[in-house]
What does this fold into?
Amino acid sequence: MQMLAAGGLPLLTDGIRIADQDNLQGYYEYEQVKSLSKGDCSWLLLAKGKAVKIISGLLMFLPDGYQYHVLFMRRAIPEVLASQQYMLDRRKTLQSTINDVEMTEVFQRHLDQLYSWIQQQPHFRFLEVNFNHLIQDPLPWPDRICKFLDRKMDHQKMLSVINPNLYRQRCK
It folds into this structure.
C-alpha cells in the first residue's frame, strides 16, 4: 500500500488503525471492508479508482458487477506465523491452540482454494507480489505493478518507500 500511495495511486483508508510497534508505517486499512462477509458492499463506490486493502479471506465476498485488480502480497508462511506470534506475545494476547505445522497446513489450504476460486472469476485480474522477492530485488516490481494496473506511477517514489529494516521476522 505504501508503494501504491508513493507512486501516486489514491488509497481508500480511514486512519482508524494507526501505526504501532507491530506496523511502524501504519495499516492503510478501511474498517468497513470487514463488513464484506455480512454483505455490506455499500462502500465499494468510494473505492473506484483507488487501492483498498482487503485480507484474502474476504476477497470471495466481493460482488460481481465490478472489475477488480488484485495485487496479492504473498509472504513466506513461516514469516507470517512468526510475525503473528511476536505480536501476540508482545500484546500478551491468548495463544493459539494450533501449532505452526497445523496452521501452515490451514493457511496453505486456504491459499490453494483462493487461487482456484480466483482463476474462475471473470471480474478479477490477479498479480501475486512475493514480499520476499520484493525486498530482495525491488527494481522490477514498480514496472510490473504499473503494467498490471495499467497506470503510470512514479517508479522511483515507489522504490523509495521499500525499507528492508522493517522486514523483521525473517526465515530461511
Strands lie at 68-74, 124-130.
